[in-house]
Write a structure and sequence with these properties.
The protein is α+β, with helices and mostly antiparallel strands. The protein has three helices and six strands, in the order E-E-E-H-H-H-E-E-E. 29% of the residues lie in helices and 21% in strands. The chain has a four-stranded mixed β-sheet with strand order 3-2-1-6, covered by helices on one side. Strands 4-5 form a two-stranded antiparallel ribbon.
């Protein structure tokens, strides 16, 4: 579908247009899914804790928010970008610690012409 075994997925993010492509195939995301994926992709291969995601994606103060909120949105994202959401290769979980994105990331910020 998006990538073959042994390959690392390529994710292209057009921030100004709220568009995401996985190996050149456009993926339709909700605004929250887009914000979550974009945040995770700012530091690929780095562990992002649930608390960090609640604070930086949902703007919750420290100690507020539910891990289930993050878990559900990650689950929805996986259904849209992974070949096999039950065995994710792009958004991986580290039990009790958080999530890691494993992909080549490209941000494309287009200037809007008038």
């Amino acid at each position: 579908m998006f990538y073959s075994d042994g390959d690392v997925a390529a994710i292209r993010i057009q921030s100004n247009r709220y568009r995401v492509y996985v190996n050149d195939a456009e993926v339709l995301l909700t605004r929250v899914e887009f914000d979550l994926l974009k945040y995770l992709c700012t530091s690929p291969y780095r562990l992002h804790s649930t608390e960090e995601l609640l604070a930086n994606v949902w703007q919750y103060p420290d100690g507020v928010g539910d891990a289930a909120l993050v878990r559900n949105h990650v689950h929805n994202l996986r259904r849209k970008i992974e070949i096999d959401p039950e065995r994710p290769l792009i958004i991986q979980s580290r039990h009790g610690r958080g999530y890691v994105v494993k992909a080549r990331i490209q941000f494309e910020d287009e200037t809007i012409q008038q």
